[in-house]
Write a structure and sequence with these properties.
It catalyses: N-terminal N-formyl-L-methionyl-[peptide] + H2O = N-terminal L-methionyl-[peptide] + formate. InterPro entries: Peptide_deformylase (IPR023635), Peptide_deformylase_sf (IPR036821). Removes the formyl group from the N-terminal Met of newly synthesized proteins. Requires at least a dipeptide for an efficient rate of reaction. N-terminal L-methionine is a prerequisite for activity but the enzyme has broad specificity at other positions. Belongs to the polypeptide deformylase family. By secondary structure, the chain is α+β, with helices and mostly antiparallel strands. It has a single domain, classed as Peptide deformylase (Peptide Deformylase, Alpha-Beta Complex). The chain has 4 helices and 9 strands. Strands 2-3-4-7-8 form a 5-stranded antiparallel beta sheet, with helices on both faces. Strand 7 and strand 8 form a beta hairpin. The chain starts with a strand and ends in an 8-residue tail after the last strand.
Length: 196
């Protein structure tokens, strides 16, 4: 089922997510719905707060990035088929010199900005079978994970921008929160919450 994506301005996007356990109701259905919602919006990642749930869960399918011809064959292979579920994730280390990449977000449509992040991360998480994992990722995969991880920490990519950049996009962000934007996927806007 395709779920509405919560728009910028909704308080759920600023909450730190809660850990969940195997008894979380209909977790497999939720994960399937999150992937379906993400694909419908042509995203590569989706976090539970983006569908209104303040829990530590996000999904990623970085396959679309594999078609980027600027990447090495090795990077393309890493991205191809990189589909994961992250539950109760904790980034335990970020390493390297920060690099800029133009990021966007399904909750903040039509706003893209360069964000600086470290290129290599070590992350602990549970997969969809609640098996514990500790893995190291780098490059674009690390960046997608960091972006989605920020969501479960109540952080948006716009929070990482300079004061000047924030001022420049302030009006666009206000319009998004009011629903004054055209998108080709389902969204839930803070102003509409009471109506639905």
């Amino acid at each position: 089922m395709i779920l509405p994506i919560v728009a910028y301005g909704d308080p759920v996007l600023k909450k730190v997510g809660e850990d969940i356990d195997q008894n979380y109701p209909d977790l497999n259905v939720l994960i399937d719905n999150m992937f379906e919602t993400m694909y419908n919006a042509y995203g590569v990642g989706l976090a539970a707060p983006q569908i209104g749930l303040p829990i530590r869960l996000f999904v990623i399918d970085a396959t679309p990035f594999a078609e980027d011809e600027d990447l090495t064959k090795e990077e393309q292979e890493t991205l191809k088929g990189f589909k994961r579920v992250f539950i109760n994730a904790t980034i335990i280390e970020e390493e390297g010199e920060e690099w800029a990449f133009n990021e966007g977000c399904l909750s903040i449509p039509d706003v893209r900005e360069d964000v600086f992040r470290k290129p290599k991360i070590t992350i602990e998480y549970l997969d969809e079978n609640f098996e514990e994992k500790t893995e190291v990722f780098d490059g674009l995969v690390a960046r997608v994970i960091q972006h989605e991880y920020d969501h479960i920490e109540g952080v948006l990519f716009t929070d990482k921008l300079s004061a000047l950049k924030k001022r420049l996009i302030k009006g666009r962000l206000a319009n998004i929160s009011k629903g004054k934007i055209n998108v080709d996927y389902r969204m839930r806007f803070p102003a509409q919450k009471k109506k639905r």
